[in-house]
Amino acid sequence: MTDSMSLVEIAREIRSQLPELLREQAEAVDQTLAKLLEQAEAGEDVDYEIRILLGKHQATDTWKRDRLQGISLDSLDSVDKGFNSLAGDIADTPNVAKYACPIEGCSSLFWFPIDVSDPIPVCETHNLEFKRVAASS
Ligand SMILES: [Zn+2]
Description:
binds zinc ion, two-stranded antiparallel sheet, 6 helices, single chain, 4% strand, mainly alpha
């Protein structure tokens, strides 16, 4: 059994944050999330799709990551701390794994795995699996 927060719950929560996190891109992401949540309610497993969707934008990826990390410490206090550290989280971590579409100039955004078991996303434009790239500094 697991009583940690599921990606579906995170997806529900993040919808209210999207305008702030993504600004003009929020609506498109919100519409996709709404569809995925409908599927989830119908009993489909949409964790992977939610992960890919939120992973496409660094703001939502960081938010999701902080949320998951906060929960894994199983204390509400740590969730609050996670929220506060949103901005500097990735920049402050050296050697963070970073993935991108292998096609140079692709407009897909970088993706940052939460842990090594995360499935690598596929570029929707080129249908190619993302490749690990050196973290830029
Ligand atoms: Zn691509």
